[in-house]
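In line with agreed milestones, the collection of sequences with tokenised folds has grown. A representative record is reproduced below.
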Amino acid sequence: MKKTVLTFIAVAMTFAAAQAPAQNSPWLVRARAVHIDPADKSAPVAGVGAADRISVSDKTIAEVDVSYFFTPNFAAELVLTYPQKHDVYLDGASIGTFKHLPPALLAQYHFMPGATVSPYVGAGVNWTTFSKNRMLNGQASLEHDSWGLALQAGVDYRLSEQWSLNVDVKKVQIRSDVLIGGVKASHVKVDPVLFGVGVGYRF
């Protein structure tokens, strides 16, 4: 009898775990299409002339993020993508390109976990590394790394226990000195706003 009861309990627990809603899982993965809209603020070139002469092209990219829920309300989100290529302009004329990789880690608060419409806010840190600077025929480059704050607001629209739609807006600090011949010539504040739309899956 004892063995039968234990077997019954084990089967019941297995069945209950199989039927548990996905909302109880701590893992959420989203895939988004994100439009990057740079602020395009820069210091005068070589310390003279007007400001904001340097600009960076906007772009739409693919983004994947992974969230882990410590509680129903609090989560951490790691935002990932692949190196992105941007055009750089001086007074509207192209002076070359560069690539950057901008992962971010954010702490989130979800106001209405489990609801059909679940808004959230987040704050964290962004690390951007620049590479393949090809500006002014190799004479100009950007600093290798940039650290800055990242702010976020978004909403999940629940479609099922696993699937959801997502709309997300982030403001990210990305800044760098512009070097010409190894000498600082200007300072740029890319500081983009990122508008994202995508889908989420909760395991």
